Structures are given as structure tokens and as C-alpha cells.
Amino acid sequence: MTPGSLFNIILKIFGLFFLREIVNTIPQLVSSLLYFTKSNGAGEGIFVFIVTLVILAFYGIVAYQLLFKTNLILDKLKLDKGFNQEEFNFNLSTSMILTIAIIVTGAVILTNEIPNLCKQVFSYFQEKRSTNGMTKPDFSYSIISAVKIIIGLLLIGERKRIAEFINRRQQTRADD
């Protein structure tokens, strides 16, 4: 493994963490849509919605660049310059390191969202019980947490396919 390929892998790992941030930003987008339903919060809702879209677009562009255009970033920042171009003695392939990074990303999402889901479900039932069914508590945050848990499980379960997709996409970009 050369220093360039090591930096390539590190940049892809950062790209995976930006994907995680995209997943974490989506609930903000959903909550900004809820402002539209309130009569007094339409102006604020539009502002929050636009800001959240800008954040999602920024995260998406950075994640795309870090995952699929790493060679361009390496060339622009000259990250692999100044190193002896001899290979490092690692016994891990690029896809194996990406697989590990995908597992870690999925695990981080799970460790953040499982307690959050439990808290949201508990709050839902507590509010429902305290109001004696007079109001209908909001269950959307519990659904969003459940979706994040499913995404984390899918990342862990489909790690090989995701790593192959990233590597294949990187190789087709390099050939162009």
C-alpha cells in the first residue's frame, strides 16, 4: 500500500462520516416542514427549510467528493507528496478498510439512535398517559429514530456491497 492509497482510504472514511451527518440532518429537514403547517411559523419554516437544504447540499457535495473524487483531492492538496513512494507493509486491502469504516459508521449510528428511540417511545407513551388520550402526541421523532436504526443496520449488513460500489465508482472515475 502506497502513501497515496492510504490517504485515499482516509478521505473515503471521512466521506462516510459526512454521509452519517446527512442521515442526522434529515430530521431537521422534516421538522422544518412541520413549521409550514403552523399558521404563525411559515416564514420561519421557509428559512429553516432553506438553511437545512443548504447544509444537506454542502454535506452531499463534500461526501461525494471525498468518496468518489479522492484522487482529485489528493492531487490538489498534494497529500502523497514528500513521502517515499515505497509500499507500506499492511496486509489489509482497500475494500477491507472501507468495510471496517462502514461497520464503524453503522455502529455509531446505532449507538446514537437506539437510546434516542427508547427515549422517544417512552416520552410518547408518557405524554399519552398524562393527557388521558385528550391529545395525540407526536410520534414522528420515534419514526425518524427507527429509520436511522434501519439505516445503521443496513450499513452493517450491506457493508461489502457498499464498499464494492465505492471502489467500482472510484475506478470508473479514474478511467475517464
Write a brief caption for the model.
Helix content is 81%, strand content 0%. It is mainly alpha-helical.
How would you characterize this protein structure?
The protein has one domain (3-175). The protein has helices at 3-37, 42-68, 70-77, 94-130, 140-157, 159-175. The chain is an all-alpha fold and 176 residues long.
Write the topology of this structure:
Blueprint: H1 3-37, H2 42-68, H3 70-77, H4 94-130, H5 140-157, H6 159-175
Give keywords.
single chain, 176 residues, mainly alpha, 81% helix
So how many helices?
Answer: 6
How many strand segments? Answer: 0
Silhouette: elongated
SSE order: HHHHHH
Through-space gap between termini: 23 Å
Give helix % range.
over 70%
The overall pLDDT average reads 81
Unreliable parts: none
**Which secondary-structure class do the elements indicate?**
mainly alpha
- Count of discrete domains: 1
Rg, Å, rounded: 21 Å
Approximately how much beta-strand content do the residues carry?
Answer: under 5%
- Give the biggest sheet: none
